Amino acid sequence: MKQKHFKNNFKGDFKNMKLHKLLIALFVFSLVLGASATTFAQDEEPWKEITEEQYLKQKEELTQQVNNLKSDINALDNEVKALNADLKDKDAKVKKAEEELKGLCDAALYKAEFAKVEKIVMDKDKSGIKVEDAEKLVALLEASKCKCMGDYQTRLAKIKKELEAWKNPPQKADQYTVVKGDCLWKISNKFYKEPKAWFAIWEKNKEGVVSAPPKVAKTIKNPNLIYPGQVLRIPALTDAEKKAAVLKANKYRNKWVKRVKKTETTEVKKEEVKKDVKKEDKKDVKKDVKKEEVKKDVKKEEKKK
pLDDT tens for residues 228-280? Predict the structure, then answer.
């Protein structure tokens, strides 16, 4: 009996403990909900945290900002209206100028010629025309007053850019086209950062360059004589090959200096010989003069007798 009573009491106490824990959990949950509701209320109603004076001040500031923005909008609207009016005025002037231009040039003919030249330059590989002739055609387009009509100016700029690329094609890494003022020394410095390596370029081209304009030498017998338009081979050099080229250039220079000195010495000797000959000639002339004088004296003596 006592055991049964104890079990019943234990079950009752256990139920009470469960109920107590549940009540505590509900209480904590209600506190959390209350705190969240308070925070939400504070976030939703910030005006409850400021005074009436602060509210009025903020209202005044915001009203002023709105008025300033409205003023800016009005100013921008007026500016847009002014710009639109100016644009209409300029459009009218352009239209009037185009009408006047139509009377100064044949618009239809210019349009046809422009399309023809544009096709030639833009499709130069198929046109079969020389760049010099294309330049003349473009110059005629530029000389016409019709170029001011429509979008011709923009298209002309593109044509000129393409023409310039046609005249000066990009250089290949292993080739170089000689221009006025060039020498092998400069070209070597440009490609190798070592002007004295010019000998390697000369060796590669002295028996024949890649190409050259008409009436321009196709070979480079003298490294001091290269001409604009010649397309030279530019060999790729290792450091060792570059040093070897520098040594060859120095040897060639020494030989050239000796040759020049020898030539100069020979010239000096020739001049000395000429001077000696002139001296001898002068002596001979003096002798001849003396002989003539003696002859004259003899004749005079004979006449006296």
Answer: 999 999 998 888 899 999 999 999 888 867 666 666 656 655 666 566 666 66
Our separate counts of H helices and E strands in the chain read 9, 2
* Torsion region of 281: left, alpha or beta (phi above 0 gives left; psi -120 to 50 gives alpha): alpha
Q: What is the DSSP string of 89-151?
A: HHHHHHHHHHHHHHHHS-HHHHHHHHHHHHHHHHTHHHH---HHHHHHHHHHHHHSGGGGSTT
0.85 surpassed by pTM: no
Closest by CA position to 156, among listed 186, 190, 115, 194: 115
Quick one: angle between helices 107-122 and 131-143, nearest 10? 150
Q: Which residue has the tokens 């049964």?
A: 4
Residue 215 region by backbone torsions, left for phi larger than 0, else alpha for psi between -120 and 50, else beta: left
Buried b (16+ CB within 10 A) or exposed e, 154-184: ebbeebeebbeeeeeeeeeeeebbbeeebeb
